[in-house]
């Protein structure tokens, strides 16, 4: 069953159509990547999925339910979690404290009202598990403010996982990272894919990063869906090669 689906999703900014009649489905537990050159509409599409933007036309469905008119908070409660929604990283708290608070906020008032030793232990165990999953164990007691850029992204991912949504929208998790930091974050994403049984939709600018991780790849170009297929087919697709790979080649040689 499709856990996430769009039909003819469109948004116009003035005369410019940033997302143009995009229809796609994401089956449950699939790892789908969205690629495309600068300005293709990837982030705008994410904003439409998470509810930050309302479309000019078309619809978004979550588990068959039309959520087009719902707020980001309501969509999050229904199962869509987005990495950049994590605005509550406290710089002067440790990694453990930040993740613990995220786990606690998900469990909500129930746990606070019935606070007891076993629920606190459970929350701490989950926080430690998530810190391990994103490979930050050695930094457990570091203040968030003292983490390297790549480590901060890992912390954000741990806090996103704490919300325990079925769908994770990851917007360029490697953005702004030094080359040495990239393999570690890809390892984290691979581990999440293997261990967490989530549906993952990931935006990536650099196609080579996500070829082996993705079950399917969507290519956006000028707001349009150029292709949506298995990675191998995407590589062979001539339209994609000329539109997207050509652009990348230019970028590397510029
Ligand atoms: N709020 C807005 N108002 C006007 N135009 C916008 C707005 N948001 C995005 N756009 C335009 O929509 C187009 C798509 O932008 P978007 O950021 O979604 O692209 P992208 O594929 O995410 O690019 P990048 O890889 O650079 O992040 C661009 O031309 C951009 O200038």
UniProtKB/TrEMBL annotation:
Instruction: Extract one GO cellular component term from the record.
Output: plasma membrane
Q: Which domain of life is it from?
A: Bacteria
In terms of PROSITE patterns, this protein maps to: ABC_TRANSPORTER_1, ABC_TRANSPORTER_2
Indicate the segments forming the ABC transporter domain, all copies: 4-247
Which CDD domains does the protein's record reference? ABC_Mj1267_LivG_branched
Q: Name one Pfam family in it.
A: ABC_tran
| MF terms (GO), sorted A to Z | ATP binding; ATP hydrolysis activity
**Presence of the UniProt keyword ATP-binding in the record:** yes
Listed SMART domains: AAA
Which keywords does this chain's UniProt record carry? ATP-binding, Nucleotide-binding, Transport
Q: What is this protein called?
A: Branched-chain amino acid transport system ATP-binding protein
């Amino acid at each position: 069953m499709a856990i996430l689906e769009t039909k003819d999703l469109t948004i116009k900014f003035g005369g410019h159509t940033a997302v143009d009649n995009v229809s796609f489905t994401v089956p449950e537990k699939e790892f789908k990547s969205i690629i495309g050159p600068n300005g293709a509409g990837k982030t705008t599409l994410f904003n439409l999925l998470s509810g930050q933007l309302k479309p000019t036309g078309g619809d978004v469905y979550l588990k068959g339910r039309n959520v087009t008119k719902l707020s980001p908070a309501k969509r999050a409660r229904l199962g869509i979690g987005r990495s950049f929604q994590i605005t509550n990283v406290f710089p002067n708290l440790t990694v453990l404290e930040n993740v613990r608070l995220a786990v606690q906020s998900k469990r909500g008032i129930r746990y606070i009202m019935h606070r007891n030793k076993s629920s606190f232990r459970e929350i701490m165990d989950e926080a430690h598990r998530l810190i391990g999953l994103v490979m930050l164990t050695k930094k457990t007691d570091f203040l968030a403010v003292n983490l390297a850029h790549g480590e901060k992204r890992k912390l954000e991912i741990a806090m996103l996982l704490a919300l325990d949504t079925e769908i994770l929208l990851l917007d360029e998790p490697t953005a702004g990272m030094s080359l040495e930091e990239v393999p570690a974050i890809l390892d984290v994403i691979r581990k999440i894919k293997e261990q967490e049984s989530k549906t993952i939709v990931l935006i990536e600018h650099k196609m080579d990063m996500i070829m082996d991780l993705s079950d399917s790849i969507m290519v956006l170009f000028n707001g349009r869906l150029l292709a949506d297929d298995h990675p191998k087919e995407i590589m062979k697709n001539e339209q994609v090669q000329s539109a997207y790979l050509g652009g990348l080649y230019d970028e590397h040689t510029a």
